Amino acid sequence: MLRKEFVFTVLCAVFFIFGPATHTAAVADEPHPERGPALFQYCVRCHTIRPEGEHRYGPNLHGLMDRGIASVEEFAYSAALSQKKYEDQYWTPKTLNAFLAKPHMAAPGTKMAFRGLMNPHDRADLLAWLIDATGSKILADAIDDPMTEASTGDATRGARLFHPCRACHSTEKGAPHEVGPNLFGLMGRGFAAAEGFHYGGSLAFRKGIWTPESLDRFLQERKAFRQGTHRAFETLIGPIDRADLIAFISTLDDKKRQLQSQQSTEE
């Protein structure tokens, strides 16, 4: 009996000193919409949000809240969102939260490349910002610009992020190919144009050149290329991580190296 009384006394003291746990959790879980623009980088490759923004892989999001699902007439939605069951449904905080968390479960069969924002705090912050931003006519001009240009990334941090890539790629001029091709001089080079390297899958037949934009898509979503190669690396979801990695890869160039050397000498 004495032991039970002692435990009860201790619990009462803890409650009196620290207060109810639910209050602490509620304060900690307050959303931070100021993080929204940074989190929107997960969406901006496929969506714009400014009133005059164009459609990309997905529709413009201005006026999204309380808009019917798959209701933008001039946009061709995938069959997954064009089903009759969505005809009378609208985008609300609840439906959008479910879609942001696991789009392929919320709308089975969707062609949306985005895999979901699993962190509930990130999702709450993005959602809090989207509710206001999708109805705002005053948004920064750059809000619809993806962070893909090499100048927007941190090449020093990108060099650290590149460390796992060294298992398959060399980066020095003239170095031999490894499991993957040498990446020196990658920017501006054709998709499968590294001399002496045998490419596999559809990438060998793809037309185009490597740019910050095409590399961003490649790092973000393997499905976008469907190259069918033996490449072990799958995706790099974080937009800031991708920008930093692209910034580093962009330095693998004779002109960039010469410029860096000149700047170091002047310092």
Keywords:
267 residues, mainly alpha, Cytochrome Bc1 Complex, Chain D, domain 2, 10 helices
Structure notes:
With 267 residues, the protein is an all-alpha fold. The protein folds into two domains: 111 residues, Cytochrome Bc1 Complex, Chain D, domain 2, CATH 1.10.760.10; 117 residues, Cytochrome Bc1 Complex, Chain D, domain 2, CATH 1.10.760.10. 36% of the residues lie in helices and 0% in strands. It has ten helices and no strands. The radius of gyration is 24 Å and the shape is elongated. The chain starts with a helix and ends with a helix. About 8% of the residues have low confidence.
What is the structure about, briefly put?
The chain has 267 residues and is mostly helical.
The proportion of residues in beta strands is under 5%
Q: What's the architecture of the largest domain, going by CATH?
A: Orthogonal Bundle
- Please name the CATH topology of the largest domain: Cytochrome Bc1 Complex, Chain D, domain 2
Distance between the termini: 77 Å
Helix vs. strand class: mainly alpha
Largest sheet: none
Number of domains: 2
Globally, the shape reads: elongated
Rg (C-alpha, Å): 24 Å
Query: CATH homologous superfamily of the largest domain - what is it?
Result: Cytochrome c-like domain
Beta strands, count: 0
Helix and strand element order: HHHHHHHHHH
